[in-house]
Design goal:
Blueprint lengths: L1 E5 L5 H9 L4 E5 L2 H10 L4 E8 L3 E2 L1 H9 L3 E9 L3 E4 L10 E4 L1 H5 L2 H6 L4 E4 L3 H11 L4 E5 L1 H7 L2 E4 L9 E8 L10 E7 L6 H10 L5 E8 L7 E7 L5 H13 L2 E8 L3
Parallel strand pairs: 1-2, 1-3, 7-8, 7-9
Antiparallel strand pairs: 3-4, 3-11, 5-11, 6-9, 6-10, 12-14, 12-15, 13-14
Length: 268
């Protein structure tokens, strides 16, 4: 089974994909839009995308693509994020003058750079890609910061493990497919909706869940692309495809301008 990810082999998305589907073949894509294109055109069976991190928040581009594209969330998975200093074998920590990684990863390792002021953090397009670059160029004064899988994929050596500031660092991943398929024991629903801008509009929208004792585990707003000062709400409800949830969504459609179910799946 071919599974698309955004990023290089050895990335956290790669690890998440293989944890979710151990026998899969991972197809690396340079851009997120290519990941969604591949799912929609059928060149891959599915894709694994990060949607939210406990420190950095939601991945806005992926939220927008879930709304715009014809895909369906089938599963979620939570991956513990561990950042590691990875260098060419034989290089020592004291030899380093630079460390490449994705800007979000660098931001999550501020304590490390405060303690090692001789090492300059340098933004790079991808965590695993930074290790790939260091190894291909045989750089002896530079490391990449990435997950442990990147060290194995590219033959790097971990000089220091677990350098992230906060050990409660998790990323939530979605498995998305083109076909709408609800797995057994699905008990969570992700949806997007928008309402008109009048007093009580959001209250009315949320009341459809409160009236049926349906709990929301998440809600946030995002600007609607191409419609200035209009917003879409992304929400997760702790119900699957049962009668109460179906009635709530029908009721929501009566008071909202837009309602799209992004996925129904077992909670991770």
């Amino acid at each position: 089974m071919k599974i698309a990810i955004q990023g290089e082999a050895g990335s956290f998305s790669h690890e998440a994909a293989q944890r979710m589907l151990p026998q899969c073949t991972v197809v690396s894509c340079a851009r997120s839009v290519e990941v969604f294109d591949r799912v929609e055109n059928g060149s891959v069976a599915a894709a694994v995308i990060p949607i939210e991190n406990t420190l950095a928040g939601s991945v806005a581009e992926h939220a927008d693509l879930l709304l715009d594209r014809d895909v369906f969330v089938q599963r979620e998975f939570f991956l513990r994020i561990r950042h590691n200093v990875i260098a060419v074998p034989g290089v020592k920590l004291r030899d380093l003058r630079r460390a490449f990684s994705h800007p979000v990863a660098l931001e999550q390792c501020r304590d490390f750079f405060r303690k090692h002021r001789n090492i300059e953090p340098v933004p790079f397009y991808d965590t695993a890609g930074s290790v790939k670059h260091v190894m291909e160029k045989n750089l002896h004064d530079t490391a990449g910061i990435a997950g442990p899988k990147a060290a194995g994929v590219y033959g790097g050596k971990i000089l220091q493990a677990g350098i992230e500031d906060n050990k409660r660092n998790f990323t939530r991943f979605f498995l998305i497919r083109k076909a709408r398929q609800v797995l057994p024991r699905a008990n969570k629903t992700s949806l997007a909706f928008s309402v008109k801008n009048f007093p009580g509009a959001l209250f009315k929208a949320l009341s459809v869940f409160a009236l049926r004792d349906i709990s929301l585990s998440k809600i946030e707003s995002r600007p609607m692309r191409g419609r200035p000062w209009e917003y879409v709400f992304y929400a997760d409800i702790l119900r699957g495809e049962d009668e109460a949830a179906r009635n709530a969504l029908r009721h929501l459609a009566e008071v909202a301008d837009l309602v799209k179910v992004l996925g129904i799946y077992p909670a991770g």
